[in-house]
Amino acid sequence: MKAVVNKIIHTSVVDGPGNRAAIFLQGCNYACGYCHNPETINLCGHCGACVSVCPAGALSMEDGKVVWNEDACCQCDACLSACRNMSTPKTKEYSAQEIMDILKKDIPFIRGITVSGGECSLQRDFLVELFRLVKAKRKTTLMDSNGSYDYTADEELMAVCDGVMLDVKAWNEAEHMKLTGMSSTPVIENALKLAKAGKLEEIRTVVVPGYLNNRETVDRITKLLAPLQEEKPIRYRISAYRPFGVREPYRSEMRSPSREELEELAEIARKNGITDIVII
Amino acid sequence: MLTIGNLKNDVMSVINNCALTHEQAMTSLSSIPMNHVEFFETTPKFRELVEAGVLCTMTEGNATYCPRYICPDYEKLMREGCKFLRLDPPTNLWEAITALLVFYRHIPSVTHYPVYLGNVDMMLEPFIEDEDEEEAKKMIRHFMFFLDRTIPDSYCHMNLGPEATRAGRIILEVQKEFKDNAMPSITLKYDPDITPDDFAVSSVECALACAKPSFANHKEYNQLYDVPYGIASCYNALPVGGGAFTLSRVVLSHMADRAYNSEHLIETLLPEAVAELCEYIEKKITFLVEETHFFKSNFLVTEGFIHLERFTGMFGMVGMNECVNTLMAKEGKTGTYGYSEEADALAKRILDKMTECVESYESRFCDVTDHHFSLHAQVGISEDCTISPGVRIAIGSELPLHEHLIHASQFHPYFKSGVGDIFPFDETAKRNPEALLDMIKGGFEMGMRYFSTYGSDADVIRITGYLVKKSDIEKLDAGAAVPQANAMWGLGEVKNSKILERKVRSLE
User: Fold this and answer.
1) Which of A161, A237, B36, B457 is the most buried (most CB within 10 A)?
2) What is the pLDDT of residue B1?
3) What is the complex's ipTM, to 2 decimals?
């Protein structure tokens, strides 16, 4: 079983506790307006629009499929700009064991791995295989997820997954729909169930003043989760929206928050009983 | 050749130098006669190898009259006081700190400043009263301030750990407040099974602020000697109650320049140079022990703060990176140190041979190391140009972080009396100091012995093994004097060895 992988980072400090390897899987079932790497949203449709714009000759069509020659690639990202499908030709397919081989030299120095995306739960069978191998090395396994998958119902996955870092993008249903194209209900239910199971590693909200009602989201989710920290404290990562990588028309419609706006949200979370708050 | 003219020139070059403080001038003057007069015979071969830069005597001078590095038994001072200095055993924190400050003033070394301050946290901990932790912090702040201003030499080295103590935590807190103070250097003796994570993380945070502490692999070093070890000077692991008589070194890069190929170096040049240097070290120790006053009458010896049989001779080496690359090129091979298995295997063959040759020499002294000299990955001297310290990968050729740690882990175990690598980080590391600790844990598990880090935005940085303020380097470069004696070596290293170009690691 192989997964479509967008990127592997050998040492990451922003994807969970300690030093971690991070694996970014291709493909997402959300299409958030503020996504800063929208090229990870869809699998390549092999339309070939990117092939002719590549200045390095690293892309070609073979048997109806776009083929990427990594060695020739100059990483100019002209292919991403040319893509009409929110995708990328620069992915690779790896089995769980192949990922482990790639991470061989990293294993002694990392606390664990984090699988992100895209939306990693879309490649759930691969996750189970990979996490088993990682656990055998006595390292921790985390998922970075949008909350659309019913994690706690998947005992097999939960048995090898140490925790989920969950995006709580918006509390309000209509707002969540507008931003992601999906309902907020499963996300909130997941937050509750994961927290009760002691598997909620972190929640995350990206702050876009004016576009999202961030105060409501922060207030409601922290009131809901604060009493459920008996197993372990839940970290809240409150991130500023940044225009880098964001597609139009959203880029023109959104603005970044000030430090004060972020601090104000952190204060709401703190008052509601969340102690571990990170502002980025 | 000694002439009055030479002597006059040497003296004038010191006393008209406006970039020296009075104390620095005095120290420099005191070494001049030692460079002009020989006190024991050397062989023509030895002199030829020194002339060619293959062997180097580390500007110790020809009349060594005290050991290069002294690690006194401070526990004895705390327990019994010191008769010669009329110090009673301390009964409270003020007395303990005063006893140490007085005692430090009387410990010589190659720099004339103490290079080992002891496990200060363990010494002060018994005097910290539960109800008076704030008061203790005031005293320790005073202590750290006083050390920085009165022992102006960053080879001066304090040890902490491996246990976490209140005193240790206060020292880290105070040092972080004093992040612009280069003195003293600090090492945390780190054992993940003994040192709590939160204390180790505080140490990482402190290191990112002011380049200290460094981390010593306590599991490895603790089994080196029959007596406890201390980390002195740059990163030298030496027996407490003893130390090192002397340090001389082999410059492998220069040896490689004279070699036809790797076989020639390993089978002929290296054994010959090692034998010459061992003979020289033995003569120097013999002179120090038998001809000078130190081991006969110094109070440290007569009162038992140090013991002759706990001293070793350090056999240093530098320039493995350049040596291997030169030999590979001479043999028409393309691989380089750190990047090719063949190059790294060659480095190990050289070290295996060096170990064998050094171990085969029997010293009349050095009981603590079974009458052998102790291998040391020397960090370099300011005149070194394109000679990488010890077994380090050259600045500019650094490997990706994890691969670099694996490389270092393979080479550190060769060196009993000190080796280490330095990894500067940008501000991203401050967000997740636990990540840095994970790397240290991984490295130590693989055999790495010593890990140093600093923040790229800090004023105090590590040059090769010692700490210097970047702002002092700028002052010296503009011709002004600064209080820190070894800052001038830092200036030389910055100019000759691209220290400020060391790869800064970024954690994504």
Assistant:
1) A161
2) 62
3) 0.83
